[in-house]
Write a structure and sequence with these properties.
215 residues, Glutaredoxin, Glutathione S-transferase Yfyf (Class Pi), Chain A, domain 2, 4-stranded mixed β-sheet, globular
């Protein structure tokens, strides 16, 4: 059994989606970051960095923080969502690192200044807005063959990037300007495990771009 400590953020939803995709049994512990639950002594013992998500795997006794490390752990634990072929394996790793180093942090800053603090810093809105658009362009080119982020197989690279893309409205992105990203986004959004994982820890429907119907 895996205990998942999480909240309704892109980084948290990565792990609930992965657990649903892998059909691993797990218990959800809500860490309401708007209320400061991440700063309690109990949670700080699990993660000294005071960030969600965290997992505790009772099968192994392992406690892990950082969404990228958790995705790698779950993939290696099950032998799923990561290729066995060396070249494809490292392809997934490099795109996972791309998400962790750029796509997540830069979109997070865009969210902060464009969605939640508009008008506070014109410089920051322009800087992070431009970088967000650039990164969407990178992803759009990577998805030009119509598959997933790394070849034709769905992997933890997709799971890492997709929840941040789901916040496209927060950082002022029109997915119609990135048709390959839009097609990939809708394909992943239609997966039952993604819908189930997105609803953790708070019931929510997967966000769809304007004009797109959920079949």
């Amino acid at each position: 059994m895996i205990d998942l400590y999480t909240w309704a953020t892109p980084n948290g939803k990565k792990i609930s989606i992965a657990l649903e995709e892998l059909a691993l049994p797990y218990r959800v512990h809500k860490i309401d970051i708007s209320r400061g639950d991440q700063h309690t002594p109990e949670f700080t013992r699990l993660n000294p960095n005071q960030k969600i998500p965290v997992i505790v795997d009772s099968d192994t006794g392992l406690t892990l923080m950082e969404s990228g490390a958790i995705l790698l752990y779950l993939a290696n634990k099950t032998g799923k969502l990561i290729p066995g072929d060396s070249e494809a394996y490292w392809g997934v790793i490099q795109w996972l690192m791309w998400q962790k180093a750029g796509f997540g942090p830069m979109l997070g800053q865009a969210n902060h200044f464009i969605k939640f603090n508009p008008g506070k810093s014109e410089y920051s809105e322009e800087r992070y807005g431009k970088e967000t658009a650039r990164l969407y362009g990178v992803l759009d080119r990577q998805l030009a063959d119509g598959g997933y982020i790394v070849g034709s197989e769905y992997s933890i690279a997709d799971i890492a990037a997709w929840p941040w893309t789901a916040r496209h409205g927060f950082h002022g992105i029109d997915l119609n300007q990135f048709p390959n990203v839009l097609a990939w986004y809708l394909k992943v959004a239609a997966r039952p495990a993604v819908k189930a994982g997105w609803a953790v820890p708070i019931p929510q429907e997967v966000p769809l771009p304007p004009g797109e119907d959920d079949d």
